[in-house]
Amino acid sequence: MDPRTEHLLLQTRRHLLTQGIHAAGAAALATIMGRGALATDGAAASAPAAAPTRKGGLPGLPHHPPTAKRFIYLFMNGGPSQMDLYDYKPEMDKLFDKDLPDSVRMGQRITTMTSGQARFPIAPSMFKFAQHGQCGRWVSELLPHTARVVDDLAFMYSVHTNAINHDPAVTFIQTGRELPGWPSLGSWLTYGLGSETENLPNYVVMTPSWSAKRPAQALYQRLWSSGFLPPNLQGVALRAKGDPVLFLKDPPGVDSRTRRDMLDGLSKLNEMHHDAVGDPETAARIAQYEMAFRMQSSVPELTDLSKEPKHVLDLYGPEVTTPGTFAASCLLARRLAERGVQCIQLFHRDWDQHGDLPGDLRLQCRDVDHATRGLIEDLKQRDMLKDTIIVWGGEFGRTIYCQGGLSRTDYGRDHHPRCFTMWMAGGGIQGGRSIGQTDDFSYNIVKDPVKIADINNTILHCLGIDTQRFSVKHQGLDARVTGVEPCRVLKEFLA
Q1: How does DSSP assign 273-340, residue by residue?
Q2: How does strand 153-160 pair with strand 434-435?
Q3: Helical pair 326-338 and 357-381, crossing angle rounded to 10 deg
Q4: How much is the pLDDT for 264?
Q5: C-beta of residue 180 within 8 angstroms of C-beta of residue 174
Q6: Which element (helix H / strand E) includes 269?
Q7: Which of 94, 352, 400, 495 is the most buried (most CB within 10 A)?
């Protein structure tokens, strides 16, 4: 048999069986869930909450009434220094330039960037801290604007992770795995709940500019890919410079009507191929072409800030009208949320301060501080914070000991996955609360550790998804965004 014909036959048979199994399973699940027969901890589960008007998604979701409609992830790529920002350790000042005790390190692994050092001198933070808000949260002088909204924030001081290097650590945050190839959190959410917008992607990523003038860690598109889920669920990146999305404009000599006719013809060819082969990649391609056509009008409208009033622009700071800045990206995040986009991620880069931390950290905080507060206050004024989860954090923290030369005003810090600080706000999260505690060196967790899976699990819980009932068969396993190890919902934060 001609190998091309054999390939088509095998593809058709495989996809027929797969689609039949999935259809039967979905029908059975919908029937069971309709009777309220699914149970949790031995008790009868309540009927699923009524879902908003949406396109796609799975039957029976959301599993329970959600407290949030969307999430905005403010990701500080590189590893922010927790003891210079949020995890106040005043006792360290007495130990300046003393060696980190072996009883604190306990033989834990360190990176090759500091493993060759003769000693590990303690570098206290040079920045002043003060308590803020009714919750009395300690915040560094580098974040004066964030300090004004701490009563809206729920802090996690005891986050820990597995990876000690950037790429696997960021991949783990995004997908729940350290190895590439797995779906990102935004793709999982779109797969489960579908989309509420037809003119914009449901999952949008932005990579704003940064001020620390040194090369940053690379970001790869696979960090917001859909992995083994359908490819139309992957995140769409808006560019920081130039056109937000390439090739949205019609080329010279091609008008909108001609473009529409071309897409209609291409769609018919793809539909014929899909009928013959049944490949879901073809269906995804059709959907992506249609989305690209609609984005030709929706994206220019989205990025046109000319109608935003001055008092709103002022919330985000002086850089809000400069395209590609973190401030401009935060305002776009709010505009995306208003237009029904459910998954929005900002990757602000170069928080990897191995040297000259005081200088670089000032610049990085100046980039994000004002705009972060502005986003929170803007959402509150529009009554949107109550159903929008905001998450702030990086892939790991920094060491209390110095990397390289140490002085009172100049030091660097190495990667530290053992403990770091993140916070959440909005969407059913009660502000002013906190979880976890680290030792005096901000080196080990002494109370209530928080895993990355716990954070992702809590995000999805607030969006109405029970991750234990939300999986996809992949390589013979029930794959979940939270992995196979036990994790919890951070109920201490729930309003």
Answers
A1: HHHHH--HHHHHHHHHHHHHHHHHHHHHHHH--TTS-HHHHHHH-TTTTSTTSHHHHHHHHHHHHHTT
A2: parallel
A3: 30
A4: 67
A5: no
A6: helix 256-277
A7: 400
| Alpha carbons 379 and 381: distance in angstroms, whole number | 5
Indicate the SS3 state at residue 415: strand
Architecture of the domain spanning 58-242+301-493? 3-Layer(aba) Sandwich (3.40)
User: Structure tokens of 30?
Assistant: 């919908």
> Can you tell me which residue has the tokens 């989305």?
291
**Structural domain spans, the chain:** 1-47, 58-242+301-493
Q: What is the pLDDT of residue 192?
A: 97
Q: How many CB atoms lie within 10 A of CB 382?
A: 13
Q: What letter would DSSP give residue 397?
A: E
- Helix, strand, or coil here: 38? coil
Consecutive 10-residue runs of the chain (495 residues): their mean pLDDT? 41 45 39 34 38 79 97 98 98 98 95 95 98 98 98 98 97 95 96 92 96 87 94 89 65 70 70 73 64 68 92 98 97 97 97 96 98 98 98 98 96 98 98 98 98 98 96 91 93 94
* 255 CB burial (10 A radius; 0-12, 13-18, 19+): exposed
Angle at 315 between CA 310 and CA 320, to 5 degrees: 75
Tokens linked to 342: 């459910």
Q: How far is CA 409 from the centre of its chain?
A: 33
Say if CB 457 and CB 418 are below 8 A apart: no
Task: Work out the burial of residue 228: count CB atoms within 10 Å of its CB; fewer than 13 is exposed, 13-18 middle, 19 or more buried.
Answer: middle
Under the phi-then-psi rule, with left for phi > 0, alpha for psi from -120 to 50, and beta for the rest, what region is 60? left
Distance (Å, whole) CA 286 – CA 462: 32
397: which 2 tokens? 């923290």
> Cα 13 to the chain's mean position, in Å?
38
